[in-house]
Amino acid sequence: TLAIMIMISREKKLNPSVTKKVMGIEIVVNEVNFVRKCIGADSSQDDLWGKLICTNFKVSFITHDALCKQRFQVANRLLGEHDVPLACVEQVVTVNDAKGKQKVLGSNQKLKFNPTELILYCKDFRIIRFRFDEAGPESAKKVCLAIAHYSHPADPQLLFGFEYVGKQYYGKRMNGMDPGGGVQTPLFDRPSEWDREIKRTGAAEWRVCSVNEGYTVSPSLPEYFVVPVSLADQDLKQYSCFFTTHRIPLWCWNHPNGSALVRMASIADPLQQRKLDQRICSAITKSHPQRSDVIKSDLDKNLPNIQDIQAAFGKVRQICVIEPFEESEEKWLSSMESSRWLEYVRAFLKHSAEVVYLLEGKHVSVILQEEEDRDLGCVVSSLVQLMLDPHFRSLIGFQSLVQKEWVMAGHRFLDRCNHLKKNDKDECPLFFLFLDCVWQIMNQYPAAFEFTDTYLTVLSDSMWIPLFSTFLFNCPQQRTENSIDFAKSKCIPLGEEKALRFPPVWDWSQQFTLKDQALFNNPMYVGKGATCVQNGAVKSFRRTKKNYSSTLRGMPTSLRNGLMDGDTLTRRSSLVLRLRPDFSQIREVVESPTERFLRDWFSRPADLQGMLLPQLLPSHLALWRLYFLRWVPEARIPKGGPVTAYHKLSQVADEIEMLQNKLRQYKGVTPVSSPGAPPSDHSRMYFKASSTSEPSPEYLSSSFPFSPVGNMCRRSILGTPLSKFLNGAKIWLSTETLANESV
Amino acid sequence: ATWVCPSLSYLWPTVGYSDQWDDLNKRFSPPLTAKDVTYICPYIGALRGTLTVTNYRLFFKCTDREPVFVLDLPLGVVSRVEKIGGASSRGEVSYGLVCKDIRNLRFAHKQMEDSLRKSIFEVLMKFAFPVSNGLPIFAFEYGQVYPENGWKVYDAQAEYKRQGLPNESWRITKVNDHYELCDTYPSTLVVPVNISDEELKRVAAFRAKGRIPVLSWIHPESQATVTRCSQPMVGVNGKRSKDDEKYLQAIMDANAQSHKLFIFDARPSVNAAANKMKGGGYESEDAYQNAELVFLDIHNIHVMRESLRKLKEVVYPNIEESHWLSNLESTHWLEHIKLILAGALRIADKVESGKTSVVVHCSDGWDRTAQLTSLAMLMLDGHYRTIRGFQVLLEKEWLSFGHRFQLRIGHGDKNHTDADRSPVFLQFIDCVWQMTRQFPAAFEFNEYFLVTTLDHLYSCLFGTFLCNSEQQRVKEEVPKKTVSLWAYINSQLEEFTNPLYVNYSNHVLFPVVSMRHLELWVGYYIRWNPRMRPQEPVHQRYKELLAKRAELQKRVEELQREVTNRSASSERAGSPTRSITPVQTFV
């Protein structure tokens, strides 16, 4: 298959003699030899010599040294150790230190000096520095210009994914690769998958509607989505024109108590608004078994907007990887606070927890309303479902959630990722913000998710490999349109298909071997059928309907105690008031119903297979260190970090797996692998059981499985003329030319 | 027998009433009980219930709510009892307790007989501050019997023997057997072989409080050593001591690997210089050839006390949501933690990577010096990362070398404004916790062990942290008359063991000392907040996995045996019929 082909070609690349043709579909644009990649912090002795290549897919560095010092533990099949996909290049900075000149390069620009140095700022927080002291000045310049040019594609169809997918259609007959790429994750591009979700959540009064087939009603909605049964196609068509970009309300999820989660764009015409609101609400009420009310939650009013989020992200990046390590230590906490990143993460978690309260505690349906319903709504709806439904905490479940609430709901990945680098104003790391929120919950409940934070990090990095249907487009319609155009221009017969078959990111074998994919598995996961030991006895968790609903039943009763008994509250506060003169420090205890709900929930042991709420005290939100600090050499804890615990846990989990297999063999049952699961001889765990209790491998560190080696240490640039320039802070966001500014 | 310690409740709120308390109470002084007392909980509001005070504890129970609310604390944690208001406004009387473990408690009586109110206050004042009232500290009355005598955990000779001492360069001296050389030092000291006891006495005259440089730890391979002492009595005139200079040279010579000696002065250089006015100071590099002096910029006990006071303001009872991080920063608590860890890291790095011996001191060598040497030893020597090894480390570097626990904590003393009080030991435990966060598999003990140690630092239930020096403890017969905390801990090790622990031999830990990794120890400082729920413990899950593995192993073994038996019997019978007892799997 393709992936293997690419892998082979990568192997070849490692051979210094093979340089001309990198891979079949990948074209070398420019290259320059005798380039030094800066590695060492204090000296150049660890630097690597090699060839710098710009292709139509990536920036590649091929070392001359066969025994390369740098060893990543996990290899990406699409990328070599030193490679950066062009889509991951955020900014290209060329420097001539002799002349004291620097320039940030954009597309189609000229460079008046010969660069002695090239610095690539990457979207995944890496900063990579090359020196051209021994390289041919002209070819160095050409490569720099090529990287700048090719990292600013003028058109989505110039993104490498099109070449990559188009290649499948050339020459060879289609090999029957299904659009899911052999992946079990439902993509929600067919009515049957929505039907299954309706059944799974027991949403009896909801139906799949195909009114948008061919994207005739709204360009940004999927072709199939779910609506209340009481709304006919005709009504929907009629209503659609009043919603922003004709986005009819979308059903997201049903609570076992019948309450529904719905997302909706705003209604432009104030005259229509009330009428329409009423109709939508009454339809949702009709779909509720208890005919409960509907509450609207205005996301735009209650949450930071995309500019705020982008600005916060820029600041965190500044603090974590750009500012000199030592200098930023002193004010680390207050800088973190002033970036507001964690504050925003908390705001989204908090808002989602409030929605959870409405669905779970108040038994009402909730509409998440946002101007266009393509940004904040994606974050909140997925977080709410993650908190309420343990299914979404499994790997497949999580992937289906992203597919449903992000890809199909029309989150503008192309614009928000700014793949075309056309409009910086549209750029916003909303999906990453969501992943950070997931990480916070994971950090508080390490056994509740089937996947690890390595998985979340790799998923985030995959946004910058422009091959996957998941992250390439603004909506499904755009994928179709671009596919047809591209197919036409390249004479690709699409046949029966509506669009090119871009692999979804969920086809992880595109990027990683099965062995490496094991790093996604959480050895602690308490999932369906997983067992747990209480008081020495082994008991198994099974998400039976009864089990699930019993936790649900328990909740409202206590809640009712808390809420309905208004008398208690009054009595209590009056007492506090009376005592006040004597206790100036004592604040009146006033709780909102949500706070009461949260407190009540937190006073009981958590059922990892039931509802899960994050602790929202600011002291309980943490920096996602693996993501933010993995490339910072100074922050790397050698032989330490959470991975050393993960290592031990994996080993025991692996042993348990082996014993279970043995038991099955004794029983005479051949191990049946569930569909999609790796073959049973393949362990779920990355770290295998060992007979002796041996120390963790030397290569483990807080950055594992990533390695900060080869990324710029800020120390090395301190004291060079460049340092002042880089400390000028603005560089990351500005695309201004800063040339001729002698330092 | 397993012993349930009448300790502080680790998690808050304590749910349920412990029956065992009644038993224990019988041994304690007759309790004084008052009904209709209001506890003003900063989280829940006012709670009406019964308050009981004994000579060891304060117990409050409110039964009108579900679940029953219980507050149970040893009086040792009380730093100060204050009356609030008078019989003024509506006739309510109330008082507040300021506690050493980062919380304050407030009680009120609604219109109560004056005598009862008075007696509660009096009983509290009496038993919370026994020392001020000429009463014995409760540890002397406790008398619980545990299977192990915790006072035997540390044996100086045995510990030095473990380190390979004495050897050709270092000897054990008896010169301080009766605490005559230095009354704040232990009786067993390790000094360079070629320095006589007479010379030691002359060195003692030049070091503050006679605390001469003595060996704390020796590297098993390079023979580089960590030695500790107090400041030299240099004074404004820059006095020198030939004996002291010779002594430091001898320490350097004992390590063949290096021709240098590093002197780490824990203080900021300004403070060290200011000490000259009081006759102290630091080693001049002119006088001490081949020695390099490094200041570690760690502030004094007063700065640390103030920092903790601010921290308490920020975390108790509630944290302000909007400025959490900048408020935390303004306490400087983590900054101090960072400086201490950074100092220890430099020491460990010099010894391990530089193979160079180091001398560590501050002013008196019993606060910052203890923090630095014990943390460096924790990094360098895996033995101290075991539960028993850690106990040895505390007994050695803190207790035997005279960290003044009595003064720093103020056990049973009502003088809460005493300038000698300071959270030096708390900072050390915080640093250890930071290390366990960075190396989750490198320590045999868990977080609960650290919290328990701190709880009993104040509880006065055990004798471990009483007195200021080894000499005082011997004089007061503390080991004879009280129970050691380690007796209790070691009687239920399971509770305190980190299941993830891997015993690496010769594995040196170099933590990353950066604000990027340091964090506030929420599980300690914010534990009274009911909204603080301990993280779903990884350790618990790991234990569950281990139990499951054991269960499976048992089943596999059973089946194996069965198969063997069957094949043996089928050979005899010659019949291959299968008859397997049904086995249930639980997957």
Automatic annotation (TrEMBL), chain A:
Q: Where is this region: Disordered?
A: 670-700
Extract one GO BP annotation from the record: phosphatidylinositol dephosphorylation
Task: Write down any Gene Ontology CC term.
Answer: membrane
Domain Myotubularin phosphatase per the UniProt entry, residue ranges: 188-628
Q: Where is the composition biased (Polar residues)?
A: 689-700
Superkingdom of origin: Eukaryota
Under InterPro entries, the record lists: MTMR10_PTP, MTMR12-like_C, Myotubularin, Myotubularin-like_Pase_dom, PH-like_dom_sf, Prot-tyrosine_phosphatase-like
Q: A Pfam family for this UniProt protein? A: Myotub-related
Give the UniProt family note. Belongs to the protein-tyrosine phosphatase family. Non-receptor class myotubularin subfamily.
Q: What is this protein called?
A: Myotubularin phosphatase domain-containing protein
Q: Which organism is it from?
A: Esox lucius
Q: Which gene encodes it?
A: MTMR10
From TrEMBL, chain B:
The Myotubularin phosphatase domain covers: 150-525
Determine the domain of life of the protein's source.
Answer: Eukaryota
What's an example Gene Ontology biological process for this entry?
A: phosphatidylinositol dephosphorylation
Catalytic residues (UniProt): 362
Q: Where in the cell is it found?
A: Cytoplasm; Early endosome membrane
Catalyses: a 1,2-diacyl-sn-glycero-3-phospho-(1D-myo-inositol-3-phosphate) + H2O = a 1,2-diacyl-sn-glycero-3-phospho-(1D-myo-inositol) + phosphate; 1,2-dioctanoyl-sn-glycero-3-phospho-(1D-myo-inositol-3,5-bisphosphate) + H2O = 1,2-dioctanoyl-sn-glycero-3-phospho-(1D-myo-inositol-5-phosphate) + phosphate; 1,2-dioctanoyl-sn-glycero-3-phospho-(1-D-myo-inositol-3-phosphate) + H2O = 1,2-dioctanoyl-sn-glycero-3-phospho-(1D-myo-inositol) + phosphate; a 1,2-diacyl-sn-glycero-3-phospho-(1D-myo-inositol-3,5-bisphosphate) + H2O = a 1,2-diacyl-sn-glycero-3-phospho-(1D-myo-inositol-5-phosphate) + phosphate
A GO term for molecular function? phosphatidylinositol-3,5-bisphosphate 3-phosphatase activity
Task: Give all residue intervals belonging to the Tyrosine specific protein phosphatases domain.
Answer: 331-378
What InterPro entries is this protein classified in? GRAM, Myotubularin, Myotubularin-like_Pase_dom, PH-like_dom_sf, Prot-tyrosine_phosphatase-like, Tyr_Pase_AS, Tyr_Pase_cat, Tyr_Pase_dom
Membrane topology is: Peripheral membrane protein
Q: Which UniProt keywords apply?
A: Coiled coil, Cytoplasm, Endosome, Hydrolase, Lipid metabolism, Membrane
The answer on whether this UniProt entry bears the keyword Cytoplasm reads yes
Chain segments carrying region Disordered: 561-587
- Name one cellular component (GO) term: early endosome membrane
Mainly localized where? cytoplasm
Q: What family name appears in the similarity comment?
A: Belongs to the protein-tyrosine phosphatase family. Non-receptor class myotubularin subfamily.
**What's the protein here called?**
Phosphatidylinositol-3,5-bisphosphate 3-phosphatase MTMR2
